[in-house]
Design a protein that fits this description.
The complex is a heterotrimer of chains A (331), B (165) and C (501). Helix content of chain B is 71%, strand content 2%. Chain B is mainly alpha-helical and 165 residues long. In chain B, strand 1 and strand 2 form a beta hairpin. Chain C has one domain. The chains are: A alpha/beta (331), B mainly alpha (165), C mainly alpha (501).
């Protein structure tokens, strides 16, 4: 047995020496601008198949199709705990120039709701905000509800027992929008959390729930097939693809909420690397594919970068802090 | 064997207790109008597991299962040695993965099993210890685009990335 | 008639040289990706997506569908050859497939799996072609209450699964269910069971981690123990004639194949269920209907046929909600959906109208992908058998490497790899004490679904448990579950009475 161990150790040493030799041979060519040395880990703070995942994979394919980067961006889903897993991972990767992360509003809500993970998003390196997704109030097209007044009357008539609002997980965007809506019109409804926006949309068509606050992209297919009806939009201006749908703002309610689609990098990322990624996403932002997709899916192309982006993040986080507090989700 | 059977039931009972305590970090009751609270499922399942371990313990005491009627040792000497070797090799491999990456751990596993345990020739060992990592690299990293952890050996792979991506 | 014309057009598309080449390539790649534990069609489809930029959308979706099919066939291969289920859908295949391989009948099990997959897939595509739109509407009627009732049926089949020690089986199920609760509770939005505050637990414990631990590492430890280090594996020599013979033998299983395919298909179209409960229910059904149900678990060929027919039928079924509603029925279809959007195709009710050629091309390629995967699979069987003949000293490190890489790949997390080692050792020790492990593995798949549906249904009904009996569809499932649970008890009582009198 002792002999065995000795032999194992000597094998290990031989292997180590071999690797050392290889590494000394691997000379890096000098380059003017920073470029990734290895494939870039493109962390997605949501699970496979959801809206955030689809968007991130779209961005990845735009980058790859147009060769915006010398090394590929490899999507890695870390959706655990509403992104808690991804946030902690990014924090632990401080200084690593080969990791970036696609975020959504759980960038603010998850650290607020889980102080235990010890993540401070203001330490992250901002890369770019690519878009803001919009929210619309939807009902099944078989219902009689046509306007927001009909809606309010219907909810009041049904009572909080019977009126079922479907949305994503408690404490996530849909529940915040619902809480805002309830507060503005003095309503009470039963909120049922589902796994993702797509499932929510399906349950509205199947009449398992009575209304939703889906993103347009999640309901567009059903809308075109005449299965669902948009009632009003949570935007300051009317949405391009729904010119006939009024905004809450027009009706005197200051109900505006966006889902941001941004990319951030770990804390202390080297400046050159940050510049490289900003440049890559600038190209994505100006690509024909991106323009087409955002127009079709009613996303605002809201380009923002650098320190402006960080101040936006901080302001949004504070706003969400107040929202969650008002909902009683945090102390 | 009998002692192992009883011991396992006790371990499961303790584990259930721990899981109940851990689940109770969230409310475990029934919220009127809303159904079970966040911790209810794991809590009551752990409680059921506690009851189940008690049941297993009693059955073992009364000798209702074949295991609890066997008085021989749970594992004999040579088996323990064999399994310690297998478990140990995996533990070393995992430490190697964390520190030096998969491409050091894979050859280690082959040298250990093929050469030291299986006593095959160095030729066979060498061929396997080289081809498997190379195949792994091309299949997983280049083909499937799953980057495996490489620990401090990461920079060695930069030229490969530059060439193949 | 219209359907046939559309379909003929679709076949013409699928047999264009480029599309056909992609089809064959996709089937082969899928077969091998699916055969590796930890990798499944999700990986194949997700990662090959960028390649498809260079070919037109129809070719691309044909390629991806071929990978999807190939991987479905491939899942059974590692279940039979290594005893490690390649995917959660193939867990039930290990119950009888692995014992068959141990008896030296691996080729029969592999052929049975391949042919059953083909039959399941084909029946499903035919149903798909004929009844896609009305079935999609039917699937919409499934709310949380119905989905939960369906899960109850799946759990009820557990009763039929086990001939082992009852309290140990229950403990195994409970343990699997508790492990499945780890991570985020979406209903309250709070994390739970984050052991020792390790961030790796936020994502929960996935099926694949437990399965690879128990079946990959645990199996090797078990083999070492039972052989005392001198492992001899039965020698197999397989020729073309053995395979033909094995195919002919399958005549006897046509009833199982047909019924399980239908069952799998209907479970598959329900957006929330998917192929795993489908394969499990099929196995339970086949066992409870069989005259020699005692042979199940010991290498019964119907025990391989049933889950394989069902899981392939179900995965074809799960494409239906994707295409007609734009709702993915499984993570793989979710990624296919992403692909379609990138190509400018909007899945949903309008797809059949706006991109008719594309839809029928895809349906036709499902027929052809199925056939070619069968042929490719059969051709590779001698190679798989050859793998079985590898000496243990070489096979052991190969399985270790596959387990470590396969455990790392799905979550890109070393935390999972450590868990695999722990589950492997624990699984081996428990197996020595006769604790059945398969119930835990299946419980970890079904647990989160069952809990979520139950609680959603409770919120909607305001805590009224009667909702499961008041809603007609859900009542049917609850009744079915009751029958499934009572049947083995009844037959046991009858046997006891017969023995007594």
């Amino acid at each position: 047995m002792k002999n065995l161990a000795m032999r194992a150790v000597s094998c290990g040493i031989a292997l180590g020496v071999g690797l050392g030799l290889v590494s000394s041979l691997a000379v890096q060519p000098a380059q003017a601008a920073w470029q990734p040395q290895k494939p870039v880990e493109f962390v997605i703070m949501a699970g496979q198949g959801g809206g955030a995942d689809r968007l991130a994979r779209l961005i990845q394919s735009i980058i790859e199709k147009n060769n915006f980067s010398n090394q590929p961006f490899i999507p890695v889903n870390k959706g655990g705990g509403s992104g808690a897993e991804a946030l902690r991972y990014l924090q632990d990767k401080a200084g690593d120039p080969h990791v970036i992360m696609a975020t959504l509003n759980s960038l603010y809500t998850t650290p607020l709701r889980n102080p235990g993970i010890g993540v401070d998003i203001s330490k992250f390196t901002p890369v770019a905000r690519l878009a803001e997704d919009t929210f619309v109030l939807w009902v099944n097209s078989d219902s009689d509800i046509k306007t927001i007044d009909d809606y309010v009357a219907a909810v009041k008539a049904a009572g909080s027992e019977k009126w079922v609002m479907g949305g994503t997980g408690t404490g996530q965007e849909d529940s915040l929008v619902t809480a805002m809506l309830e507060k503005a019109y003095g309503l009470k409804m039963t909120y049922v959390p589902f796994k993702g926006g797509g499932t929510v949309a399906k349950n509205l068509v199947g009449k398992q729930i009575t209304s939703t606050v889906n993103n347009p992209s999640e309901q567009l297919g059903f809308f075109e097939a005449g299965r669902v009806r948009p009632i009003a939009a949570f935007t300051p201006e009317r949405i391009g693809v729904f010119p006939d749908v009024p905004t809450f703002k027009e009706m005197g309610q200051d109900l505006v909420y966006y889902m941001q689609r941004s990319v951030v990098a770990p804390p202390n990322m080297p400046k050159e690397a940050q510049d490289f990624y900003v440049e890559v996403f600038r190209k994505v932002n100006e690509s024909a594919e991106w323009k087409e997709y955002t127009t079709k899916k009613a996303l605002n192309r809201a380009w923002l970068t650098g320190d402006d982006l960080m101040s936006y993040f901080v302001a949004e986080r504070d706003k969400h802090h107040d929202l969650l507090k008002a909902m009683g989700e945090i102390k | 064997m009998r002692r192992a059977e009883l011991f396992t039931a006790v371990v499961f009972a303790l584990l259930s207790g721990y899981l109940m305590w851990k689940s109770a970090e969230l409310p475990v009751g029934w919220i009127p109008d809303k159904g079970p609270a966040g911790g209810a499922f794991p809590f009551w399942l752990s409680a059921a597991m506690l009851a189940c371990s008690a049941w297993i313990f009693v059955r073992a005491l009364r000798g209702a299962t074949p295991e609890s009627r066997t008085h021989g040792p749970f594992m004999d000497g040579p088996t323990v040695k064999l399994l310690a070797m297998a478990g140990g090799s995996l533990l070393v491999a995992l430490i190697l993965i964390t520190w030096l990456g998969f491409y050091v751990a894979i050859p280690f596993l082959f040298v250990f099993w093929v050469r030291l345990v299986g006593r095959r020739s160095w030729m066979t060992t060498g061929i396997l210890a080289v081809t498997v990592p190379v195949l792994t690299f091309f299949f997983f990293e280049i083909g499937m685009r799953i980057l495996l952890p490489k620990g401090i050996t990461e920079p060695l792979f930069y030229p490969l990335y530059q060439t193949f991506f | 008639m219209d359907t046939l014309v559309h379909l003929a057009g679709g076949f013409a598309t699928a047999f264009e040289p480029l599309n056909f080449g992609l089809l064959v390539l996709g089937c082969t790649v899928g077969l091998f990706v699916g055969a590796l534990p930890g990798l499944g069609s999700v990986n194949g489809v997700a990662i090959l997506l960028p390649i498809t930029f260079f070919v037109p959308p129809t070719g691309a979706i044909i390629f991806l569908a071929a990978i999807y099919y190939g991987a479905m066939f491939g899942g059974a291969i590692s279940s039979i050859m290594l005893g490690i289920p390649g995917a959660s859908t193939a867990v039930a295949t290990t119950f009888d497939g692995r014992p068959m391989a141990m008896k030296g009948e691996a080729h029969r099990a592999l052929v049975a799996a391949a042919v059953a997959s083909f039959v399941g897939g084909t029946i499903a595509v035919i149903l798909f072609t004929l009844f896609a739109p009305p079935l999609a509407e039917f699937a919409l009627r499934f709310g949380p209450a119905e989905n939960f009732a369906l899960m109850v049926v799946a759990f009820a089949t557990f009763v039929g699964l086990s001939g082992d020690d009852i309290p140990k089986t229950i403990l195994s199920i409970l343990f699997g269910l508790i492990l499945s609760a780890v991570g985020l509770d979406i209903i309250s939005g709070q994390p739970r069971l984050i052991f020792f505050d390790l961030p790796g637990f936020y994502k929960g414990i996935s099926f694949i981690v437990l399965a690879i631990g128990i079946y990959g590492i645990g199996e090797i430890l078990w083999t070492l123990d039972s052989s005392k280090g001198r492992v001899e594996i039965a020698q197999h020599k397989i020729g073309f004639r053995n395979i033909v013979q094995a195919i002919i033998e399958l005549r006897k299983t046509w009833r199982t194949m047909g019924l399980c395919s239908l069952l799998g298909y209907f479970v598959g179209i329900l957006p929330a269920a998917g192929a795993t409960p489908g394969s499990l229910m099929a196995y339970g059904m086949a066992k409870s209907m069989s005259k020699n149900s005692k042979n199940y678990g010991k290498g019964e060929i119907n025990g391989v046929v049933a889950p394989e027919a069902a899981n392939n039928a179900a995965s074809t079924g799960s494409m239906l909600p994707m295409l007609t509603l734009g709702i993915p029925g499984s993570p793989t279809t979710a990624i296919l959906l992403g692909g379609m959007i990138i190509w400018g195709l909007e899945p949903g009710p309008m797809l059949f109208i706006t991109h008719e050629g594309f839809v029928w091309g895809l349906i036709a390629s499902l027929y052809t992908a199925n056939l070619f995967t069968l042929l490719i699979n059969l051709a590779f069987i001698p190679l798989f058998i050859w793998v079985l003949r590898t000496p243990f000293a070489i096979l052991a490190p190969v399985i270790f490497v596959l387990s470590l890489v396969g455990g790392y790949a799905p979550g890109s997390s070393l935390h999972d790899v450590w868990l695999i080692l722990i589950f492997g050792i624990a699984g081996y020790l428990l197996r020595k004490l006769n604790y059945p492990m398969a119930p835990a593995v299946l419980a970890i798949v079904l647990g989160p679904l069952a809990e979520k549906y139950f609680r959603q249904a409770m919120i909607i009904s305001h805590g009224d448990v009667m909702t499961f009996v008041e809603r007609p569809l859900s009542a049917v499932f609850v009744a079915m579950a009751a029958v499934l649970v009572c049947m083995p008890i009844y037959s046991a009582l009858k046997r006891r009475r017969a023995a007594a009198g």
